[in-house]
Each structure stands twice: as C-alpha cells, then as structure tokens.
Amino acid sequence: MTERLRAMIVDDEPLAVRRLQIALGEMPDVELIGVAWDGGAAVRLIQAQTPDLIFLDVKMPIMNGLEVLSALPASARPAVIFVTAFSRFAVNAFEAAAVDYLLKPVEFARLREAIERARLSRQVRDADEQISELLVLVADLQAADAEQGAAAGQETDLWVAEKNGAKRVPLQSVELLAAEGDYVRIHTAARSHLMRERLTVLAERLSHEDFVRVHRSALVKRSAIQQIIKRRAGGLQLVLQSGRIVSVGRSFERHVRRIKRWPST
Predict the structure, then answer these.
(1) Mean pLDDT value across residues 72-96
(2) Per-residue pLDDT tens for 32-78?
(3) Which residue has the higher pLDDT, 170 or 187?
C-alpha cells in the first residue's frame, strides 16, 4: 500500500496556493495538513505539524525558502518540492539534483511526478544530506537569478509594505507608475499600491524596453498603451488598457512618438 504523505504548502501567492490545494485534493495518497503564507509562519507550523513533504516557494517576504530551511532543526526537516517562478535557465540546475521543483503555474501532471520523486527521495536519502544539498542549490539559484536580472537590467516584481508584511506586485501586471513625493503609486488594471521609493530611483531598475517615461512624474508600460491622442489645445494623452488617461509632458513627447510610427495625417 502506498504511504500517505502529510503535506504542507508554503507560499504567499493565493492563486498559486489555491491551484495546489485543488490538485492535492484529487490525490488520495497526499493529505494537506496546512498552509503558511510567509517564512516565519512556515517554520512554526512545520515544527508543530511535522509534515512529510512541503511545497516551498523560493521567493517570499520576511523569510525566503532558503532561510526557512536554514531555520529548521534536523528533526523537523521534511522532503521539499520547490515551487518557483525562477526562469527556466536558472531552474535547470534542479534537474541535476535529487530533489524536485515546480514552475508556476503548476501543471497537475508535473505535480504528480514531483510527488513521486520526493517520495522516493525520502526512502533512499539521508535527510541531513538532502537538506544540505538544498541549501547550496537554492543559494546558487538565487545568485543566478540575480545575475540574470542584472544582465537584463530589470526587476520582475515590486514589493509593497503592508501591515502584516509585504505584498508582491508582478511588473507584468503594472501599467503605470506615478510619483507621489517620496513614494510611487503603482497602478495595475484592478487597483493601486503605494510603495516607499522615489520614481527616479525605481526607474533605473526597470527595463527601458518595457517602460517609457511620459512625464517627470510618470512611467507607463509600453504594452499597456492602447491609444495616443493629440489634444486640441496641444500636447498628447495616452489611453491605457484599463481606460486610464495619462497626460504626456512636453519634454517627453519624443519618447512617446518613438513607440510607433506617428501617423502622417
């Protein structure tokens, strides 16, 4: 009879957690015993519940996946399947290790394969040896991911402080960044977030291929621009995917005109 694994999810993204919950609910040989939304809570819950297996996000606020593993005593170290948004280039390093990973969004067939590999790993590997490898592996992946991001000259996520920690805002969901003194208002199609950062500093970390400066106090995502309007009184306005209208500063019009060929009429 197949051993029933007691599993736990450690991830700060509600959609990713829900997807795993649905998939695991269809697997009778896996029992989901808990969810932790940040690294600190994860350490406490793992020590209290002693799961056989954890699905661990690599990038999290407060404590990342590496720090969670480092904080666990040997007696509380379960088998680990990383759930990661690392690029495929960086995550290839996992393929040479005796552990497994899942790329977001998680594919259900791939999830089953990862669980079986983790089950076998628990049976044939010493837990301390396995965790030691994991710590080295995650450190290498973090360095590779940072180098790749630096080479590309861009961030992939923005972190916004909240009462109980921090919230990740993927840059792919952002359409407008607007300066508000020492803060930046991050606008997505659905809502906005306030980040303590000066726009000029943040702009240096963003890809110029993805974002264009349209005003001294505004950066717009190029792909979010749906329409460029000439105002009768002079100047330009942009209509974004959400319907939001952004005025273009006079000295920044040349940047906007380069986005696409300007009509001759």
Answers:
(1) 64
(2) 999 999 888 999 999 999 999 999 887 777 777 777 877 887 666 78
(3) 187
Q: 142: which 2 tokens?
A: 């973090």
Note if the pTM is more than 0.70.
Answer: no
Is CATH 2.40.50.1020 correct for 157-257?
A: yes
The structural domains of the chain, with segments of one domain joined by +, span: 5-151, 157-257
Q: What is the CATH number of domain 5-151?
A: 3.40.50.2300
